[in-house]
Amino acid sequence: MKKVSSLFKAAAFAGAAVMMLAGCGSSNNAGGKTETLDENAKTEITFAGWSLDTTPEFKTLADGFMKDHPNITVNIKQYSADDYDTQLTSDISGKSQPDVFPIKNLQKYYAYAAESGGLADLSDIASEYEGDKNIDVSQYKLEDGKYYAMPYRQDSWVLFYNKDMFEKAGVDAPDGTWTWDDYTKAAEELKEKLPAAGYDASSVYPMYQHGWQSVVQGFALAQTDGAYDDYFKGDYSYLKPYYERALKWQKEGLTIDWNTVNSTKVQYQAQFGTQKAAMLPMGTWYAATLVSQQKSGDADTFNWGMAPIPQNPDEKTDETVTFADPTGLAVSSNISGQKLAAAKEFVKWCSGEKGSEALAKIATTPAYFSDSVADTYFGTDGMANDDLSKKAWTEHKTNPENPVGAGTNTIQDVLNTVVHSGIMSGTSSVDDAIAKGTQDIKDQGVLQQ
Amino acid sequence: MTQATSAASSVRVAPPDHSKANKAIGRRNLRNGLIFIAPNFIGFFVLILIPVVQLFYIGFSKWSAFGDPKFNGLTNWVRLTHDSNFKAAFVNTIVYSVVHISLTLAIAFALAVLLNTKLKGRAFFRTVAFFPYITSIVAAAQVWNMLFDVKSGVINQIIKFFTGGWAPGWMGSTKWAMVAVIIVATWREVGYYMILILAGLQTIPGELYEAASIDGANKWQQFWKITVPCMRPTLFFVLVTLTIGSFKILDLTLVMTNGGPGTSTLVLAQYIYMVAFNRQDFGYSGTVSLVLFALCMVVTLVQFWYNNKKEK
């Protein structure tokens, strides 16, 4: 159903082919000593999560799994949502990491998987998903062909839009074929017509572009041909057209300007949820928040939908290309025997159809996109369930937010502090910022020779 | 002869007995002294000294926080020389420190002198001046962010009233963000240093001023010839703590601007954090830490040297 593939898959295809030809795949080499799970033995494993009160996914997964495996107990260990990576880093270096723990994004994954030695090899689980159209695990494959995490959530960026605002203003709503130029045109039209429809011109904007680096760079990287190769070669010119558009939107007052977003700490949930913006490019995780905020009254009640994210006007594709990092689960390398077997079983359950069903029920976008999972997701109360929303959620090619490699952490950081912040704050021109960022990255010695 | 010697020796024996007792007392005092400082020193040793010594190795290594640091000689230091972010952070830290130290010192001194006079309600004003120091910096920074808001902030409303429309861009502008940070930092710390200076002022004997005024010295002369010299020990302490505190500035820029826009308010301490935890490059972050360490050290030593010279 979902067209799961990624540039990485293509890049690593040769390696994968060799492994498949070799027989049973990597599982035999890597997980040769795989322990078999004894379902009757009482086993306890620990599982890391954050903000348990507001993020129900951890408990949902643990409870669902324990129901299927009554002799295994999953104890959730709470971490801080903001400092998760810092805490996890110190836990792993002190060899006290929980048995199973989430990998929040791909940027940090490489350091954990390749350098820390704290993650167990999960290649045997990956090999079971080989050829399964419903799930894409390729983003976790390292250069050595091994996998150290499995996805349990695969969000992707879509365009949220307020149907009521479009209707009242008399502007054509997204139809699934938009490029970023169409997005600009619609926004300009909205800006002109929204005041007449009764919206306050000084506080209501046609769109809301959040302040994150990924809001510009994620799309530029995912939607430009060859950008993933350029990334490690130090050529960041693919960012230019995306930044020029972002600056234009800001200049024309189609969105709140970046400096205000940052200094007043604007929340995208409030901006879209209280109808201050008609369009919002955001990850599918926001759907669950919006549903619950509309129920609780934190958000206004209005009709909304998800549309496929606008495409690069300079490139022709017949499929929707968007980006997002999977959220994965990793297993500690400190455990063995029955505990390891139970932890692996848990990860497999979470990334598989059962775990995905459980997540879809709480409106969380899972990693396994079978028809029944999609039906469950769109059947949840308060969810947008028009055809375009379903299409946006299920049919797209999702590229990672950034390539995974030894220099990723540094490159992302420079692209954020020097390029993104420099351009969006108006400190430097697009060309200057990209040139300076490129030089900085070169000076840090992280580019591929 | 022998008797005499023995008598003499017995006389001579007596003092060692005393010194033995003295030694015992000395030993006991030493032991008690050590016990008293032990809690502090053990904490200092384990939590500060050992990590600082380790830092000297980490700063010359490559380390991602996992496994052991690998020594890589001067590689990190060469990187430092053409790292434009480091340069920006270094310059920002110096600019911040120089402006912030002089501003804080001047205002704190002026306030202290003012509140040392027989002013009506001075206890109230002393409390008011000290208040910012005990306020949570995160909460205070949020409120200041609102005050500095370019469009709807109170500060710009007032400025616009006088300038007829022009107002600084504050947090959103690379030129003004540092100014805003310095204003808030000064506002926060002036009260604390005012109290320290006030305590110093009150140790100056009133007779000195009396004598000076009889000799015909005016207030201004009294200030420079009596107040300032008498205050040198206090001012020295204030200057050293203020300098070290300024070089280590982190919390304010983190909450107010997060180093931005661009790198306009990026300071060394934040760059150290960024390199370590965002880039997972603890070795290089150690190198930058060493630079900050050296900077604090050198400036403080210069201050000590100057103070000693003046004292002689």
From TrEMBL, chain A:
Coiled coil: none annotated. Pfam families: SBP_bac_1. GO terms for cellular component: cell envelope. SUPFAM superfamilies: Periplasmic binding protein-like II (SSF53850). Gene3D superfamilies: Periplasmic binding protein-like II (3.40.190.10). Belongs to the bacterial solute-binding protein 1 family. This is Extracellular solute-binding protein. It comes from Bifidobacterium aerophilum.
Automatic annotation (TrEMBL), chain B:
Its main location: membrane. Residues 1-20 are annotated as: Disordered. The keyword Transmembrane applies. SUPFAM superfamilies: MetI-like (SSF161098). InterPro entries: ABC_transporter_permease, MetI-like, MetI-like_sf. It is a multi-pass membrane protein. It is found in: Cell membrane. Residues 90-303 form the ABC transmembrane type-1 domain. Keywords: Cell membrane, Membrane, Transmembrane, Transmembrane helix, Transport. The keyword Cytoplasm does not apply. PANTHER family: ABC TRANSPORTER PERMEASE PROTEIN, INNER MEMBRANE ABC TRANSPORTER PERMEASE PROTEIN YCJO. Belongs to the binding-protein-dependent transport system permease family. This is ABC transporter permease subunit. It comes from Bifidobacterium aerophilum.
